[in-house]
Design goal:
It is built from 4 helices and no strands. The chain is an all-alpha fold. It has one domain: Membrane associated eicosanoid/glutathione metabolism-like domain (Four Helix Bundle (Hemerythrin (Met), subunit A)). It is found in: Endoplasmic reticulum membrane; Nucleus outer membrane. One of its GO terms (molecular function) is leukotriene-C4 synthase activity.
Length: 113
């Protein structure tokens, strides 16, 4: 929701009405950062849910919180400068892989004897 509100604010600031997605470069970066985060959100929520149910709630919650912090840093970095997004992007990708590993370990432990 925070990212969507930032897009709304940027639309007003740079006078870019929906459905336009181009205009001022700062608006385009904010819009693109929000879309990128939205694209990964279903995968994040699914992995968080499975890891929390089948592996460990605490480990999943900690990983999820770190992921959200990395995505916030990604968003802020992308809004400033496209190159500033890379460190947080890699961190969030590693955390998704960690959640995938926790989910797979939990599923294997649950369904294999």
């Amino acid at each position: 929701a925070y990212f969507a509100l930032q897009v709304i604010h940027a639309r007003r600031k740079y006078k870019i009405s929906p459905p336009e997605t181009t205009g001022h470069p700062e608006f385009e970066r904010i819009f693109r950062a929000q879309v990128n985060c939205s694209e990964y959100f279903p995968m994040f929520v699914s992995l968080l849910w499975v890891a929390g149910i089948f592996f460990h709630q605490g480990a999943a919650a900690a990983s999820g919180l770190l992921y959200l912090c990395a995505r916030l840093q990604y968003f802020r970095g992308y809004a400033r400068d496209p190159h500033a997004r890379l460190g947080p992007l890699y961190a969030s990708a590693r955390l998704l892989w960690l959640l995938l590993g926790l989910a797979v370990a939990g599923l294997l432990g649950h369904f294999l004897p």
